[in-house]
Design a protein that fits this description.
The chain is mainly beta and about 220 residues long. The chain has one helix and 17 strands. The N and C termini lie far apart (about 30 Å).
Length: about 220
């Protein structure tokens, strides 16, 4: 069982461009999940759709291979991006594929992002673990469990996984590949941004491709 991620040093990328509106980021070829109203979506096919790109010796965030790549080449680091939106209740979904690096990683979705010190994370790893995390006042912990737990539902290694995070009222629910893995109650954060996240533990080189990001109304 993985331990809570309290030791991670967090670095974030926040979208600040005034031109980055919901309309400019929307795509037209993604279906609404379960027929729900689409609030926001991006399949990352348009490199001018507004997501920040970074190329550094220890970090890459870029439109590549029809998706959005996050490469983390430092140990015990998370990198994430949020598109400067605001939702109270939302269903958030994304396809993720590990394209390189260790299976001992964390990959996921963000909801109710207030700032870099306060948000919820819905996490899986490429070695089959999952959990819902809360970062509150800069302190990070897995909530509802004593650590991330293993599930055979998660496709390990370089296989693709579909992650869904539901933030509805006080209920936070994580689905992976259509299966509900955990649901917890927490009322700390009521509204905020959404986003994507990838991180490393002791071994750097985590390389993740995100695709088909979509937010729908519950």
């Amino acid at each position: 069982m993985k331990q809570p991620l309290t030791f991670l040093v967090i670095v974030f990328i926040l979208f600040t461009s005034a031109a980055c509106s919901t309309q400019s980021l929307q795509a037209t070829n993604l279906p609404a999940s379960s027929g729900n109203t689409v609030l926001f979506q991006d399949d990352f096919s348009d490199p001018s759709s507004g997501w920040v790109t970074v190329h550094e010796p220890d970090q890459i965030m870029a439109y590549e291979n029809g998706g959005f790549r996050i490469w983390v080449n430092k140990p015990n680091f998370d990198y994430w991006s949020v598109p400067d939106l605001r939702f109270a209740d939302a269903h958030i979904e994304v396809d993720v594929t590990k394209i390189g690096g260790p299976d001992d990683n964390d990959i996921g979705l963000i909801c109710r992002y207030k700032n870099s010190d306060n948000f919820y994370g819905f996490l899986i790893s490429s070695d089959g673990y999952y959990g819902i995390s809360e970062r509150q006042n800069g302190e990070h912990q897995v909530i509802g469990m004593d650590g991330m737990k293993y599930s055979s539902v998660i496709h390990t290694g370089n296989a693709k996984n579909h992650i869904r995070a539901d933030c509805v009222g006080n209920l936070l629910t994580l689905y992976v590949n259509g299966v509900k893995l955990v649901e917890v109650e927490d009322s700390t954060l009521a509204v905020g941004d959404v986003g994507i996240l990838a991180g490393s533990f002791s071994q750097p080189g985590v390389d993740i491709l995100f695709d088909n990001f979509i937010v729908t109304k519950p």
